[in-house]
Amino acid sequence: MQFDTLKFADEEVAALIKENRLLRPRVLRSAQEPVADIDGKRVVNLTSNNYLALANHPEVKKAAVAAIEKYGTGSAAVRTIIGTMSIHEELEEKFAAFKRADAAILFQSGFTSNVAVCQSLISAPEDLLISDELNHASIIDGARLAKGPRKIYRHKDMKHLEEILGSPEARKARRKMVVTDGVFSMDGDIAPLDEIVALAGRYGAFVMVDDAHASGVIGEQGRGTVNHFGLDGKVEIQIGTLSKAFAAVGGYAATTRSLRDYLGSVARPFLFSSSQPPSVAATCLAVLDILLKEPARLKSLWDNTALFKEELKKAGFDTGSSVTPITPVMVGDTEKALKFSRRLFEEGVFALAIGFPTVPKGKERLRTIVTAGHTVKDIEFAAEKFKKAGKELGII
Ligand SMILES: *Cc1c(COP(=O)(O)O)cnc(C)c1O
After folding, report:
1. Closest CA to 137 of 195, 61, 212
2. What count of other Cβ atoms lies within 10 Å of the Cβ of residue 182?
3. Number of compact structural domains in the chain
4. Three-state DSSP class for 283?
5. pLDDT over 90 (residue 358)
6. How many whole angstroms from 110 Cα to the centroid of ligand 1?
């Protein structure tokens, strides 16, 4: 097809190519496994968010199939029409208990969960949304759709957060919400949630934490950042995704009963986009079950994380400020990061290069995540290849 009216797309693509920003994702030809077939090559896969290695687990798959047999493939409706199935309610109840909250509401993704909450709660010009500068894109977009202004504080800078909370604009705001990622998705560092909650409390603000990379990963039994800091029951809103450790797709907000009911009546993604397929809800229930009954899985994730970080550090790589399974390997140049990723792939390891604008200029990197399913051999193999390619390219 050719349209004169779409010529601009050719120019846009040419510009992206010039800036190394045209994305051509590699293709997975097998299930999302720790060692997977990517573009026809078997490689150690350090790129997925499959933290607990449950994306291809027999018990989980069985639960998904059983849900298809019982409920069919799709709900064919939004939640508020006739898309609420008993399995959605079961998942909401079990997730609320997992998060030690009174209630939970499901959304179609982590992205729409953030949009739903930011847009619904910061709903007038008198409200204020206060956000960490490194929060996820879906929080940024949620803030853009909100009706109130937003203020951005420097990454984890509590002095700056307090300055904003104490400003005249914040003092006269009708509602103020402080929003932070629990675990930051590009750097793998953890928000100082204890300090954020204390500050918010002092200034009459409430807190929303996005636990996309923390649920199923940190805290007792993977309960997330709130539990990690011993703050069960003390954080107003816990958001998260069901597409990472939970190996399906979807998102949730765990909160009070009345806020849940409010979101269920006004949040636009809830009202105007259809509910999760029942097999997806069943997948999440099965993952939650395994997470609670198999603590060894979480331990493997952390053992593997410690081993890989140690190997990389010993080799002289800069792994930034990460304290979680997300381990960035700093390169500092987009072209070099891309070359590094390609060399590793030839050697049998897949680690994704992340460049500007996803991360700031000078902070270009490979982003790695080991899972509970990698073996010690996989990790040692990957670390060897990192050393080899890193030396070749002058990164170490
Ligand atoms: C991945 C991610 C999301 C989006 O979740 P999806 O379910 O993939 O839409 C939101 N917030 C953070 C911090 C994330 O890392």
Report:
1. 212
2. 27
3. 2
4. helix
5. no
6. 5
